[in-house]
């Protein structure tokens, strides 16, 4: 078993990233070999100020460590320091089909009305993502629900490459999607997922938000006037309520039904302060640790350099075998 997963280093990592992905990576690193990367090559699919990017990557790495990723246990690195990601992505661009990419819903969402004006990189992004995991023969990829389609694409690309070139090179990775926290929604819109790239800061709880900000965001979160129901079905047509109850359950490590049993009949006037308290207590130690880590930026750079060296070693045989399969031997 080998686990590979990543996060884009731009924007503010939020509670959705933490509950849907990072927290689970931190748990898995104790059980299995994990490679966790900062997707900086994905970050440049939209314009990012080059003067800021290195600091942003460092901060994202520090955030992962503050959330419990231990660089002594997991291999923590950034994509750009391992050129094999970009190389394999090119090879796989030649296997992936335009029709497959045209079906990617995230591209449609992220390009919006500007489809003709976005970068080719934004369009081809899921192929780089396929390279990210196939390069290491990942068996399992812990992700939020929003990445499910991209992982299916990675499996399709792997299958076609193996079949076209008559090899058993790429392992088909399995998605690991959690239940309660697989899709944390925006605090402003129960139909949109919580995202780093949402222009409204009130839509998400950032891992760096202080206690007052968290309390304020929860207080202002969109809800409805009804009291909480007794059963899960009672949340069906109430996306905002469902989201807040789901966040509570994920933070408390409890089943959604248990949370409902506790709060059934109560309104948000009672539920929101309890949720805010829980979020504040969960994020307090992360924020404190992040502050300590950011005082030593050189140490973070060293961690990323070392992790990238380890990742590059692991990537080499698969990349060489992919070139070989294509009739372009490069040696090992
Ligand atoms: P962006 O808006 O820039 O795409 P993002 O918030 O989607 O940012 P990513 O870096 O794309 O964050 O995703 C990192 C990981 O977090 C992925 O595994 C993704 O599935 C997961 N994730 C992102 N948003 C959520 C969410 N709202 N709920 C649960 N998991 C999420
Ligand atoms: Mg995303």
Summarize the model shown.
This protein has 332 residues and is mainly α. It is built from 13 helices and 5 strands.
Characterization of this structure:
This protein is mainly α and 332 residues long. The chain has two domains: 2-183 and 296-326, HUPs (Rossmann fold); 201-292, Tyrosyl-Transfer RNA Synthetase. Helices cover 53% and strands 7% of the residues. It has 13 helices and five strands. It has helices spanning 15-28, 40-43, 50-66, 84-93, 98-102, 105-111, 120-134, 148-164, 211-220, 239-252, 256-263, 268-294, 297-325, and strands at residues 2-7, 33-38, 75-78, 140-143, 174-177. It has a three-stranded parallel sheet with strand order 1-2-3. Helix 8 links the parallel strand 4 (140-143) and strand 5. Helix 4 (84-93) crosses helix 7 (120-134), helix 4 (84-93) packs parallel to helix 13 and helix 7 packs across helix 8 (148-164). It is globular, with a radius of gyration of 21 Å. The model has no long low-confidence stretch (mean pLDDT 97). Bound molecules: adenosine-5'-triphosphate and magnesium ion. Residues 7-8, 11, 16-17, 20-21, 143-144, 146-147, 181-184, 193-197 line the site of adenosine-5'-triphosphate.
